[in-house]
Amino acid sequence: MHLEEALNSKMDIKALIFDMDGLLFDSERIVQRSWEIAGNELGIQHMGEVIYHTLGMNRTGRNEYFRKYIREDFPFEEFGELTRDNFWKIVDKEGLPLKSGAKELLAYGKAQGYKMANLIRTGIDAYFDSVICGDMVKKAKPDPEIYQKASESLGIQPENCMAFEDAPGGILSAHQAGMQVIMVPDLVQPTEEIRKLTYRVCDSLADVIEIWN
């Protein structure tokens, strides 16, 4: 079954819900660079590689990982400040690019009348009927809370929502919320177990548009 058939079948998809970092925005690689720079400034090597193990975690989860696997006295606050500073220095110099096909996919969803929500406040909010930020939930992915809140904010049942994600934690979150999920991998490719939880794995957002038409 193709995506367009799914959207018009008994699944009755009425809403599209988008993760942002690494899915619509090519931001994860900038975060990775900022971690590497911050780590070097603190004398902690290879922090850029650590991001692969912490994608989808909230701040508490990341700090616990750092404490357990990097060092017990990991300088959380200083690292956070340095990564934020370095992230925005890179963005100010190079911009924060949208992924290929992002605007086209959002424009299509809007034109077709789907309700749409995203999971972080951004500069493209005009496309969306609802925005759910991380500080609006108590539990981070892979807990389903953020996707449950997104569907509630749209007034659409989870089974009538299609989620778009790039990371395994997000796939688990949307799946546990009861949604169909399309994965467009960014830094991390899906395992076979994660792939089974998706409706489709696409190489790019442009591929999503192609199977839609």
Write a concise keyword list for the protein shown above:
213 residues; six-stranded parallel sheet; 6 strands; globular
What this model shows, in words?
With 213 residues, the chain is an alpha/beta fold. Strands 3-2-1-4-5-6 form a 6-stranded parallel beta sheet, covered by helices on one side. It has helices at 3-7, 28-41, 47-54, 59-70, 76-94, 102-111, 145-154, 168-176, 192-196, 205-212, and strands at 15-18, 115-118, 130-131, 161-165, 180-183, 200-201. Strand 5, helix 9 and strand 6 form a beta-alpha-beta unit. Helix 2 (28-41) packs across helix 3. The chain starts with a helix and ends with a helix. The mean pLDDT is 89.
